[in-house]
Amino acid sequence: MSIYFDSDPTNPVIDFEYDTSYTIYYKNTDVTRTIFWFELSNSPGSGVVVGSDGPTNFDTRANNWNMIQYNNKADWDPITNIVSDTFYYSGVKTKERFNNNAYDPSLFSRFLTVYGMTSNYSVKELFSKQLGAQDIWGIVGDFNSWGSDDLDIPLIETATASKIFTATLDYEILKDKSFKFRSNNSWDKNYGSSTTNWTQGALVEGGDNITPTNVTMDYKVTFNLNDSTYMIEKIPGTTYVEPPNILYFNSDPTNPVIDFEYDTSYTISYKNTDPRFKNFWFELSNYFPGLGVIVGPDGPSAEDPSGNWCKKDEYGNHAEILDYVASTTFYYPENKTKNYFSQNNYDPKSSIRFLNVYGANSSYDKIDVVLTKELQYGSWGNWGIIGIFNGWGDTADINMTETYSGSHIFTAKLPKDIFSGTQFKFRHTDENWDMLLGIPTATTNSWNTGKLTLYDAETIRVPELLVDYTITLDLRDINNVLYSATEAYAPCFHEDSTILSSIEGVETYVPVKNLRQGDLVKTYKHGYLPITAIRNFNFYNCATNPYKLHKLIPEKFPALTSELIVTGAHSLLVDSLEEKQKRKCVAVFGSVKKIDDKYRLPAGMISEKYENDGLFNIWHFALDSVDNPTAYGVYANGGLLVETTISKLLLFANNANDI
To answer: Would you kindly state where each structural domain of the chain is located, as residue ranges?
Structure first.
């Protein structure tokens, strides 16, 4: 169906010119309708009927459009079912009809609508055609300085003549900014709201600004002129976190600080988001905050012949602050920098350096390092382990190896005969007593994992060890330096592993993290046995840990119903070993080992490495007694036969947590 001009169905109605006569046609398909008329309106059902009784070129009567009346009928040909009528479109009278203030409807939505009536006077709207230009609705607000800086954000109509419009407003537009709706980038027609719930409400012409609160994501805006309402809905998956404080060059936040060139002046800026801090200064250090020098307006500059860095005890070297941005300019002299950082003309560009930002409140009783920026990747130099075992430096430190250049992760082996019962710290290069890392509080509880500190550091105290350990030092985050030590040969399960057990007489697989001492576990040859000891601890998984986590997948091990993650030394129990596997087992265990009639085969020899780095909670349990140490075969993750540990190892494993 369509409305068209001049008996030509290929010439659809688009718009009318003022002071012109038109013949309009409509092809009807509803055979129950026998009486028809046309209506011109700003929206269907609210306008005036056009036709033979309306104003025409020869009609000298009132020249007003006639209000809707059923007797303003159009001509109808019952053979072709074509409805037609001719009318005159008077510019002056049309403007008066649609707006008493000579408002020009040609700028806004108008509709030509066809009505049909049955012989029993049942009326139906048959077709409506939108004419001409329509209101261009948009969103205006703080984000575009209320229209003075940029055009409004356009609202898109969901369908022709639906009078429902939508737009997407991102986080940056909505956060801490007010807005309203208006048409045609003009204030002639605008809507706000009076509700306190900014996400939905009634539209009020000329109403109050809409002010969002607690904005955390992007939103979809729906503007509905049918019922004069609006709605603002969250768009899932677009949650934003307040952007971190950043350091940058030359007032350009897109140009973050990476490194400095010698003999060059720099302006460094810092965008603060913490309202507690009112005063700021910058420090350049080779390693940790507090070991460097303050840079700023009283520091070396191109005009400063002394070229000395300011010492950290001068908190007066503040940065200038404007709109929460602290900034300062300083000069980076090559010779003075080398001399300051090593006294031996050592070039600090060969190692990592940091630019640290300090903040203080107005009374200086609250001072914190608010941001540390790593400037340059290079070698961290040599890290080692120093302690009672080497007379705190009488002999060489135990050297730690970086996993790969620039990884900032270092590992070393801790033999039980050297480290059992000792105390130690981490040290940067031999003879460097300024860079000793230890723990904040001395303890032997959970000695094998924790956070390290440079200031007032305590020694790490090791309990009696029955096995060797691998220790890892993680320096990737200078504000969160971590270490962990892992048993070399302990068979352990990831916390999500499941073990075939009997719970209240029902045989079922139970997550190992939910098992407790006394629970019955099904064994390969010995029926159900109670758990005699069970513990868990944090395990640091990384590429160079030789006992790192491995995963066994159902595609390779059909007995599994889901992926099984265990430590690399955790053995599967198998019927036979290949010659190559036998040689490897001898290297690990000293000989080929069995549990019952099955061979022990470490998972690390036949499985994939679990590539996710970080701390994981792992579990091990025993079914034997201390006096009769015995490992058993048990079923994991649907039926794969694997080993347990022995209770004697758990009894002395002070790194673990009793359950």
So the answer is: 3-131, 137-234, 246-374, 383-487, 493-658
